[in-house]
Amino acid sequence: MSEFVLEQQNETATAIQKPKEMIRRLVWRMAIATLILMAIGSATRVMNAGLACPDWPLCYGELVPAKQMNLQVFLEWFHRLDASLIGVSAIALCGLSWWHRRALPSWLPWAGTFALFLIVFQGILGGLTVTELLRFDIVTAHLGTALLFFTTLLIIGIALTPYQGTGNVGKLPWVGLTAAIFVYAQSLLGALVGSRWALHQCFGGSQLCDVMYTHIFGLVPPTVATLAVVLISWRTPALHPALRRLANMSGVLLVLQLVLGVATFRLHLQVEPLTVSHQAVGATLLGSLVAFTVLALRDWAENREIEAKI
Asked: What's the predicted TM-score (pTM) here?
Protein backbone atom coordinates (compact mmCIF):
# COMPACT_ATOMS: atom_id res chain seq x y z
CA MET A 1 0.00 0.00 0.00
CA SER A 2 2.78 2.41 0.93
CA GLU A 3 4.57 1.68 -2.37
CA PHE A 4 1.37 2.51 -4.27
CA VAL A 5 0.98 5.82 -2.40
CA LEU A 6 4.62 6.67 -3.02
CA GLU A 7 4.22 5.92 -6.72
CA GLN A 8 1.13 8.13 -6.89
CA GLN A 9 3.02 10.95 -5.19
CA ASN A 10 5.88 10.63 -7.65
CA GLU A 11 3.47 10.74 -10.59
CA THR A 12 1.79 13.82 -9.16
CA ALA A 13 5.14 15.56 -8.65
CA THR A 14 6.14 14.73 -12.24
CA ALA A 15 2.85 16.08 -13.56
CA ILE A 16 3.44 19.35 -11.69
CA GLN A 17 7.06 19.71 -12.81
CA LYS A 18 6.36 19.05 -16.50
CA PRO A 19 4.51 22.34 -17.28
CA LYS A 20 7.03 24.31 -15.22
CA GLU A 21 9.97 22.80 -17.10
CA MET A 22 8.26 23.35 -20.46
CA ILE A 23 7.63 27.02 -19.70
CA ARG A 24 11.12 27.50 -18.30
CA ARG A 25 12.68 26.21 -21.53
CA LEU A 26 10.37 28.38 -23.62
CA VAL A 27 11.30 31.47 -21.60
CA TRP A 28 15.05 30.87 -21.97
CA ARG A 29 14.70 30.45 -25.74
CA MET A 30 12.70 33.67 -25.89
CA ALA A 31 15.34 35.50 -23.82
CA ILE A 32 18.12 34.41 -26.20
CA ALA A 33 16.02 35.40 -29.22
CA THR A 34 15.33 38.79 -27.64
CA LEU A 35 19.03 39.41 -27.05
CA ILE A 36 19.70 38.58 -30.71
CA LEU A 37 16.78 40.82 -31.72
CA MET A 38 18.29 43.78 -29.86
CA ALA A 39 21.65 43.19 -31.55
CA ILE A 40 19.95 43.09 -34.96
CA GLY A 41 18.06 46.27 -34.07
CA SER A 42 21.35 47.96 -33.21
CA ALA A 43 22.85 46.80 -36.50
CA THR A 44 19.79 48.14 -38.32
CA ARG A 45 20.30 51.56 -36.74
CA VAL A 46 24.07 51.88 -37.32
CA MET A 47 23.67 50.68 -40.92
CA ASN A 48 21.00 53.37 -41.50
CA ALA A 49 18.51 50.63 -42.33
CA GLY A 50 15.72 51.76 -40.01
CA LEU A 51 13.63 52.97 -42.95
CA ALA A 52 14.83 50.37 -45.46
CA CYS A 53 11.27 49.05 -45.42
CA PRO A 54 9.21 52.22 -45.94
CA ASP A 55 5.91 50.65 -44.87
CA TRP A 56 4.75 48.60 -41.87
CA PRO A 57 4.00 45.82 -40.99
CA LEU A 58 4.80 44.61 -44.53
CA CYS A 59 7.96 45.52 -46.41
CA TYR A 60 7.30 47.10 -49.80
CA GLY A 61 3.81 45.65 -49.49
CA GLU A 62 5.11 42.08 -49.31
CA LEU A 63 5.91 39.52 -46.64
CA VAL A 64 9.26 38.84 -48.34
CA PRO A 65 10.46 41.73 -50.53
CA ALA A 66 12.61 39.59 -52.84
CA LYS A 67 12.99 42.21 -55.58
CA GLN A 68 14.15 44.98 -53.24
CA MET A 69 16.31 42.75 -51.06
CA ASN A 70 19.76 44.08 -50.16
CA LEU A 71 21.73 44.22 -46.92
CA GLN A 72 19.78 47.13 -45.44
CA VAL A 73 16.38 45.75 -46.41
CA PHE A 74 17.38 42.33 -45.12
CA LEU A 75 18.37 43.74 -41.72
CA GLU A 76 15.07 45.58 -41.27
CA TRP A 77 13.03 42.66 -42.63
CA PHE A 78 14.82 40.07 -40.49
CA HIS A 79 14.44 42.33 -37.44
CA ARG A 80 10.69 42.32 -37.97
CA LEU A 81 10.65 38.55 -38.60
CA ASP A 82 12.49 37.82 -35.34
CA ALA A 83 10.17 40.20 -33.47
CA SER A 84 7.12 38.43 -34.93
CA LEU A 85 8.41 35.02 -33.82
CA ILE A 86 9.02 36.34 -30.32
CA GLY A 87 5.51 37.80 -30.33
CA VAL A 88 4.01 34.40 -31.18
CA SER A 89 6.15 32.86 -28.43
CA ALA A 90 4.85 35.45 -25.96
CA ILE A 91 1.28 34.50 -26.84
CA ALA A 92 2.20 30.84 -26.25
CA LEU A 93 3.84 31.72 -22.92
CA CYS A 94 0.77 33.59 -21.72
CA GLY A 95 -1.62 30.88 -22.91
CA LEU A 96 0.36 28.00 -21.39
CA SER A 97 0.77 29.86 -18.11
CA TRP A 98 -2.99 30.28 -17.72
CA TRP A 99 -3.81 26.79 -19.03
CA HIS A 100 -1.50 25.10 -16.53
CA ARG A 101 -1.99 27.68 -13.75
CA ARG A 102 -2.99 25.05 -11.16
CA ALA A 103 0.38 23.34 -11.53
CA LEU A 104 2.38 26.58 -11.58
CA PRO A 105 3.25 29.34 -9.10
CA SER A 106 0.35 31.77 -8.75
CA TRP A 107 2.43 34.70 -10.03
CA LEU A 108 3.44 33.05 -13.30
CA PRO A 109 0.23 33.61 -15.35
CA TRP A 110 0.32 37.30 -14.45
CA ALA A 111 4.01 37.52 -15.35
CA GLY A 112 3.24 35.86 -18.70
CA THR A 113 0.44 38.36 -19.28
CA PHE A 114 2.78 41.25 -18.48
CA ALA A 115 5.36 39.87 -20.93
CA LEU A 116 2.67 39.66 -23.63
CA PHE A 117 1.63 43.26 -22.91
CA LEU A 118 5.23 44.41 -23.28
CA ILE A 119 5.74 42.66 -26.61
CA VAL A 120 2.48 44.08 -27.99
CA PHE A 121 3.52 47.55 -26.85
CA GLN A 122 6.95 46.92 -28.35
CA GLY A 123 5.33 46.04 -31.68
CA ILE A 124 3.34 49.27 -31.63
CA LEU A 125 6.53 51.24 -30.94
CA GLY A 126 8.26 49.35 -33.75
CA GLY A 127 5.56 50.45 -36.18
CA LEU A 128 5.76 54.04 -34.95
CA THR A 129 9.52 54.13 -35.48
CA VAL A 130 8.81 53.65 -39.18
CA THR A 131 5.68 55.79 -39.57
CA GLU A 132 7.21 58.61 -37.49
CA LEU A 133 10.49 58.42 -39.43
CA LEU A 134 12.76 57.27 -36.57
CA ARG A 135 11.70 59.92 -34.07
CA PHE A 136 14.32 59.78 -31.33
CA ASP A 137 11.96 59.49 -28.35
CA ILE A 138 10.11 56.58 -29.95
CA VAL A 139 13.38 54.84 -30.86
CA THR A 140 14.60 55.24 -27.27
CA ALA A 141 11.33 53.91 -25.86
CA HIS A 142 11.55 51.01 -28.34
CA LEU A 143 14.88 49.87 -26.89
CA GLY A 144 13.80 50.58 -23.30
CA THR A 145 10.75 48.35 -23.72
CA ALA A 146 12.86 45.63 -25.33
CA LEU A 147 15.23 45.65 -22.34
CA LEU A 148 12.27 45.54 -19.94
CA PHE A 149 10.82 42.57 -21.84
CA PHE A 150 14.23 40.88 -21.78
CA THR A 151 14.60 41.34 -18.02
CA THR A 152 11.02 40.10 -17.46
CA LEU A 153 11.87 36.86 -19.27
CA LEU A 154 15.05 36.49 -17.23
CA ILE A 155 13.18 37.00 -13.97
CA ILE A 156 10.66 34.32 -14.94
CA GLY A 157 13.38 31.91 -16.07
CA ILE A 158 15.55 32.39 -12.97
CA ALA A 159 12.55 32.15 -10.65
CA LEU A 160 11.63 28.77 -12.19
CA THR A 161 15.17 27.41 -12.02
CA PRO A 162 15.87 24.96 -9.14
CA TYR A 163 18.00 26.69 -6.52
CA GLN A 164 18.92 26.09 -2.90
CA GLY A 165 20.41 29.14 -1.21
CA THR A 166 23.05 29.27 1.50
CA GLY A 167 21.56 32.15 3.50
CA ASN A 168 24.75 34.23 3.36
CA VAL A 169 23.78 36.92 0.85
CA GLY A 170 23.51 39.78 3.34
CA LYS A 171 22.80 43.03 1.46
CA LEU A 172 23.81 41.64 -1.93
CA PRO A 173 20.20 41.49 -3.26
CA TRP A 174 19.81 45.23 -2.80
CA VAL A 175 23.27 46.03 -4.16
CA GLY A 176 22.51 43.89 -7.22
CA LEU A 177 19.12 45.55 -7.70
CA THR A 178 20.71 49.00 -7.51
CA ALA A 179 23.35 48.03 -10.07
CA ALA A 180 20.71 46.62 -12.43
CA ILE A 181 18.62 49.81 -12.22
CA PHE A 182 21.68 51.98 -12.90
CA VAL A 183 22.70 49.85 -15.89
CA TYR A 184 19.14 50.02 -17.29
CA ALA A 185 19.10 53.82 -16.93
CA GLN A 186 22.52 54.07 -18.59
CA SER A 187 21.27 51.89 -21.44
CA LEU A 188 18.40 54.34 -21.99
CA LEU A 189 20.88 57.21 -22.06
CA GLY A 190 22.94 55.29 -24.61
CA ALA A 191 19.82 54.73 -26.72
CA LEU A 192 19.11 58.45 -26.56
CA VAL A 193 22.65 59.26 -27.69
CA GLY A 194 22.34 56.80 -30.57
CA SER A 195 18.84 57.81 -31.68
CA ARG A 196 19.79 61.51 -31.75
CA TRP A 197 23.21 60.83 -33.28
CA ALA A 198 24.56 62.99 -30.47
CA LEU A 199 28.16 61.85 -30.86
CA HIS A 200 28.26 62.76 -34.55
CA GLN A 201 26.54 66.09 -33.97
CA CYS A 202 28.81 67.01 -31.07
CA PHE A 203 31.99 66.29 -33.00
CA GLY A 204 30.62 67.74 -36.21
CA GLY A 205 29.00 70.96 -35.00
CA SER A 206 29.23 71.08 -31.20
CA GLN A 207 25.52 70.26 -30.91
CA LEU A 208 23.91 67.88 -28.40
CA CYS A 209 27.20 67.64 -26.51
CA ASP A 210 25.22 67.82 -23.25
CA VAL A 211 23.43 64.59 -24.22
CA MET A 212 26.70 62.87 -25.04
CA TYR A 213 28.45 64.03 -21.85
CA THR A 214 25.47 62.99 -19.73
CA HIS A 215 25.94 59.47 -21.06
CA ILE A 216 29.69 59.57 -20.44
CA PHE A 217 29.45 60.83 -16.86
CA GLY A 218 26.47 58.55 -16.32
CA LEU A 219 28.93 55.65 -16.42
CA VAL A 220 29.98 56.33 -12.84
CA PRO A 221 26.91 55.05 -10.90
CA PRO A 222 26.50 51.71 -12.75
CA THR A 223 30.26 51.13 -12.73
CA VAL A 224 30.55 51.71 -8.97
CA ALA A 225 27.44 49.63 -8.24
CA THR A 226 28.58 46.70 -10.41
CA LEU A 227 32.05 46.74 -8.87
CA ALA A 228 30.36 46.72 -5.45
CA VAL A 229 28.50 43.55 -6.45
CA VAL A 230 31.77 41.90 -7.47
CA LEU A 231 33.80 43.02 -4.44
CA ILE A 232 31.14 42.21 -1.85
CA SER A 233 30.61 38.80 -3.47
CA TRP A 234 34.34 38.09 -3.17
CA ARG A 235 34.27 39.06 0.50
CA THR A 236 31.14 37.08 1.35
CA PRO A 237 31.98 33.64 2.78
CA ALA A 238 30.05 30.54 1.73
CA LEU A 239 28.29 32.40 -1.07
CA HIS A 240 26.45 30.13 -3.49
CA PRO A 241 28.70 29.28 -6.49
CA ALA A 242 26.02 30.41 -8.94
CA LEU A 243 25.96 33.86 -7.36
CA ARG A 244 29.73 34.08 -7.35
CA ARG A 245 29.86 33.12 -11.05
CA LEU A 246 27.23 35.70 -11.96
CA ALA A 247 29.08 38.39 -10.00
CA ASN A 248 32.36 37.55 -11.76
CA MET A 249 30.57 37.52 -15.11
CA SER A 250 29.14 40.97 -14.39
CA GLY A 251 32.63 42.25 -13.61
CA VAL A 252 34.07 40.88 -16.85
CA LEU A 253 31.17 42.26 -18.88
CA LEU A 254 31.59 45.66 -17.22
CA VAL A 255 35.26 45.85 -18.20
CA LEU A 256 34.46 44.69 -21.75
CA GLN A 257 31.67 47.25 -22.01
CA LEU A 258 33.95 50.08 -20.88
CA VAL A 259 36.61 49.05 -23.41
CA LEU A 260 34.02 48.88 -26.21
CA GLY A 261 32.60 52.23 -25.15
CA VAL A 262 35.99 53.94 -25.26
CA ALA A 263 36.79 52.36 -28.64
CA THR A 264 33.41 53.40 -30.04
CA PHE A 265 33.93 56.95 -28.80
CA ARG A 266 37.48 57.24 -30.12
CA LEU A 267 36.48 55.86 -33.53
CA HIS A 268 33.41 58.15 -33.73
CA LEU A 269 31.00 55.22 -34.30
CA GLN A 270 32.69 54.49 -37.64
CA VAL A 271 33.15 50.75 -36.94
CA GLU A 272 29.67 49.24 -36.99
CA PRO A 273 30.53 45.89 -35.32
CA LEU A 274 31.95 47.79 -32.32
CA THR A 275 28.75 49.79 -31.88
CA VAL A 276 26.58 46.67 -32.17
CA SER A 277 28.81 44.80 -29.70
CA HIS A 278 28.65 47.73 -27.29
CA GLN A 279 24.86 47.53 -27.10
CA ALA A 280 24.79 43.72 -27.00
CA VAL A 281 27.31 43.54 -24.16
CA GLY A 282 25.37 46.23 -22.28
CA ALA A 283 22.18 44.17 -22.53
CA THR A 284 24.07 41.05 -21.43
CA LEU A 285 25.51 42.94 -18.44
CA LEU A 286 22.01 44.01 -17.45
CA GLY A 287 20.86 40.40 -17.80
CA SER A 288 23.65 39.04 -15.59
CA LEU A 289 22.85 41.61 -12.87
CA VAL A 290 19.14 40.80 -13.05
CA ALA A 291 19.88 37.06 -12.76
CA PHE A 292 22.20 37.75 -9.82
CA THR A 293 19.57 39.88 -8.09
CA VAL A 294 16.76 37.35 -8.52
CA LEU A 295 18.88 34.47 -7.18
CA ALA A 296 20.13 36.60 -4.28
CA LEU A 297 16.56 37.59 -3.42
CA ARG A 298 15.49 33.95 -3.50
CA ASP A 299 18.40 33.12 -1.19
CA TRP A 300 17.44 35.95 1.17
CA ALA A 301 13.72 34.99 1.16
CA GLU A 302 14.44 31.32 1.85
CA ASN A 303 16.67 32.28 4.77
CA ARG A 304 13.95 34.53 6.19
CA GLU A 305 11.43 31.69 6.00
CA ILE A 306 13.78 29.34 7.84
CA GLU A 307 14.41 31.95 10.56
CA ALA A 308 10.67 32.54 10.94
CA LYS A 309 10.01 28.83 11.48
CA ILE A 310 12.73 28.63 14.11
From this structure: 0.91
- Cα atoms in the Cβ-side hemisphere of radius 13 Å centred on 7: 4
CB 240 within 8 A of CB 166: yes
**Quick check: 148 and 181 in contact, CB under 8 A?**
no
Is the model's pLDDT at 296 over the cut of 50? yes
What is the per-residue pLDDT across 238-256, written as a single tens digit (0 to 9) for each? 899 999 999 999 999 999 9
Question: Range with the lowest mean pLDDT among 26-40, 109-123, 260-274?
Answer: 260-274
Q: What's the rounded Cα separation, in Å, for the pair 189 and 232?
A: 27
Smallest Cα–Cα separation from 278: which of 42, 99, 29?
Answer: 42
The arithmetic mean of pLDDT across residues 280-284, rounded, is: 96
Angle between helices 2-46 and 136-160 (to 10 degrees): 160
For the range 297-303, what are the long-range contacts, defined as Cβ-Cβ under 8 Å and sequence gap of 24 or more? 297/173, 297/177, 298/158, 298/159, 298/163, 298/165, 299/163, 299/165, 299/166, 299/167, 299/168, 299/169, 299/173, 299/240, 299/243, 300/165, 300/169, 300/173, 302/164, 302/165, 302/167, 303/165, 303/167, 303/169
Is the omega angle on the peptide bond into residue 57 within 30 degrees of 0, that is, cis? yes
Query: What residue ranges do the domains of the chain occupy?
Result: 16-162, 163-310
Percent of the chain clearing pLDDT 90 (strictly above): 64
The residue type found at 137 is D
Q: State how far the Cα of 160 lies from the Cα of 142, in Å rounded to an integer.
A: 27
Whether 144 and 279 have beta carbons less than 8 Å apart is answered as: no
CB-count exposure of residue 63 (10 Å: 0-12, 13-18, 19+): exposed
Cα separation, 156 vs 190, whole angstroms: 26
